[in-house]
Write a structure and sequence with these properties.
259 residues, alpha/beta, Rossmann fold, 8 strands
Length: 259
């Protein structure tokens, strides 16, 4: 009897195994069929927008440009344009944030532009360590001047050709080393952007350039906002406080300064 029950159990188990295997095979076949025939899903609506690849003469390489138009974009109107450095990370964060905040707050509609490298890896083409580095005797390899030419002579004209961007309401946003570039731009080409937003700028090495004489500006409505986290690393926090104290006390500066 024991031997008979064991044989029956083995037979039942074998049948169950075959049934399960058949079900799994059918399921996998169905999944494979679906994946072969279904189109690729679109980007999330919050970040979906225009894209173009730009071969920069000033930089000698390509950049990826992402553009989010405001809800209800009106070709007859004009909009502020917000240029995001490090667009690989800042565009997916700030483009939807602007969209969602605008639902509840009186935030002006704007065109959001992400300037991206297509990678976070230097070996794969991320050149922020060059593009955002201002000239400094102790830190050769600056590419900030070339990157500013790319913005002024290539990207901004192309954005304003393609979209209803208001030339008098350009805003540049940068974080960390990108924030250092925003300050470099504010000191070397103050009229290029109406507004500038700096977040936790990394000013070293080469911080001496940020304490030079105030540049001359043709406009009198320029704005600069500098945010520095209280818990930022001391090597970043101390230069930020030093910079703000210097320019806050300066009798002449080309922009109104807030933090």
């Amino acid at each position: 009897m024991v031997g008979s029950r064991t044989a029956r159990e083995v037979l039942v188990a074998d049948k169950m195994t075959r049934v399960i295997a058949a079900v799994v095979a059918l399921f996998c076949a169905a999944c494979a069929s679906t994946s072969q025939t279904s189109p690729a899903p679109p980007l999330l609506a919050a970040i979906d927008g225009d894209y173009f690849r730009w071969e920069s003469a000033a930089l000698g390489r390509a950049l990826h440009i992402y553009v989010k138009l405001p809800e209800g974009y009106d070709p007859a109107a004009t909009y502020p344009a917000v240029y995001l450095l490090d667009g690989d990370s800042t565009y997916p964060l700030l483009a939807p944030t602007h969209l969602f905040v605008a639902f509840d707050e009186p935030v002006p509609p704007a065109i959001i532009i992400g300037i991206a490298y297509g990678s976070f890896d230097r070996k794969m083409g991320n050149m922020r360590h060059v593009d955002f580095r201002p000239p400094a005797a102790v830190a050769p390899g600056s590419g900030a001047a070339a990157f500013q030419r790319f913005l002024a002579d290539e990207l901004i004209p192309e954005i304003e050709r393609r979209y209803r961007s208001d030339p008098s309401r350009r805003i540049l946003v940068g974080q960390s080393r990108g924030g250092a570039f925003v300050l470099y731009s504010a000191l070397t080409a103050p009229d290029l952007f109406w507004g500038r937003i700096v977040s936790n700028a990394s000013l070293t090495p080469g911080e001496e350039i940020f304490f030079g004489p105030p540049p001359a500006a043709a406009r009198d409505d320029l704005k600069l906002f500098y945010a520095s986290g209280e818990r930022d690393r001391p090597e970043y926090r101390a230069p930020a406080l030093k910079w703000f104290a210097h320019w806050d006390a300066a009798p002449e500066k080309p922009w109104s300064l807030k933090r």
